[in-house]
Amino acid sequence: MPFAVGAVAAVAFVGLYGHTHPVVGAVPSWRWFGLLDVPTRSSVQGAASVGAWLALLTLTGAWWTVVRRVRAGGVLLRTVAGGVGAWSIPFVVGPPLTSLDIYNFAAQGVQVLHGQNPYSQAPAALGASAVLGAVDPRWRGVHSPYGPLGLRIEWLAALVGHGHATATVVGLRVVAVVCTLAAVALGVSLVARAHRPLALLLLASPLVLTNLVSAGHLEAPMLALLVGAVLAERRGHPLLALLLALAAGLVKAPALLGVVFLLVQHQRTAGVDLRRAVLGWRVAARDVAVLLAGAAGATLLVTDAWGWTRTVVHTPAMGRGFWTPTTALAEVIAAGARLAGSGMTLDGALSVTRVCGFGVSGAVVAVLLVRSGGRAWVAALGTGLVAVALLGFILYPWYVLWGLPLLVVAARRRIAVGASAAACAFGWIYLFPALGEWAGLARAALRHPTWLAGAVTALAWAVGAVAVARRTAAVAAGQIDLTVADRFAAAVERDDAVLGSESAGG
Q1: Spatial separation of the C-alpha atoms in residues 248 and 223, rounded to whole Å
Q2: Cβ atoms < 10 Å from Cβ of 486
Q3: pTM for this predicted structure
Q4: Cα 103 to Cα 179: distance, rounded to the nearest angstrom
Q5: Which of 143, 121, 107 is nearest to 26 (CA)?
Q6: How far apart are CA 246 and CA 250, in angstroms?
Q7: Do 188 and 202 touch, CB atoms closer than 8 A?
Q8: What is the average pLDDT value for the chain, to the nearest integer?
Q9: Is the CB of residue 214 less than 8 Å from the CB of residue 94?
């Protein structure tokens, strides 16, 4: 039953979310059969926004219900796979949602296709076109922070799509779906057979569906390569693991942390004591040679292949979000400075908190490197990537996914479940409708009270149907074998027995 509820909620979310959150100046090249048409009336838009948010809440609740049942045992892997597949389909066939970044990826791919350098030329260099028109105006003048392999993936989508805006976006979506499937499949293969149903659920959580499958972020190929590196290391292929981790870092820079952990792990495998910083020169020389060869190959991917080192920090630093820990701390510091009469501005406070965040995350990674050994290095890497995301310049829900899959496959089950639940909760809160959208829903309810009454009635019937279905399923499974009358009769019999024993004793 939770799978059916989740599938319906997924359809509702995909059907409603595209009618909300319009970005002024950004025009999608394709309306996706009307799913991206934004209503002109704010009341309708508000109702759609709140409805989509509630649908995502319902999907997350269904996912959590299944997680609890799987942890209790008795749910087969194929049952979980079928259910997850059912509520994944709407995200696969629906339009890009929750982010416009995929249109920026498409523009950068077309840039490379036309011989432009996204590291020194912004998407605005394309000129007026459908490709540029779909990009968020805030990012049209920003250079690409992605690695050369990331740009080559974008170029491949543009090449297959012949530079057409819609075809390029569809190509990027196909890449995202395939890479997400690969990351999930590889991750499931890394855990014990008895834990695979739970791993599948956690690796294909609502956060993954909304941010990797639907939004098409480059975290999908990055994670496929990074999880592949872990699998290669586990299967005894250290050089392949290094190359895969390097390739993941050449998509998005945070994955380069995997290269560092692999280098340290290889030293441990060679019997070197890292606390005394004694290097096994043969193993180190082998690893460095492989990395240099991989880096040399990366220079052939795109023109100015290492130009991303100029933008990888600068571009994310342009983002602001009050929910980001370093930004929230800077807001507090700046407010305190104003009350104290100091001249410190928010930008000045941000420069301090971001440096501190970078230092703290670096210290966390260093401690994890020293203390992790054996197979614990995978969970340590996942923890380090999550720390880098949380303490970075800007925090988005898809950034949490940098290390979450590694925690799922390597950390304790309680930690993996808790981290996945917290990540999904953050993704749900991130999409919380604005106050104006709630007001729009209220106006729509006042204008059409019969619609509100119908919606409440339908919701009540749905809740009742779910309750009846759950009870029927429990009775069929033998979990509930007493009706209300049976329980009453049993209670009466117990009371009679107690009274009889008391009178006999008297």
Answers
A1: 7
A2: 10
A3: 0.86
A4: 18
A5: 107
A6: 6
A7: no
A8: 86
A9: yes
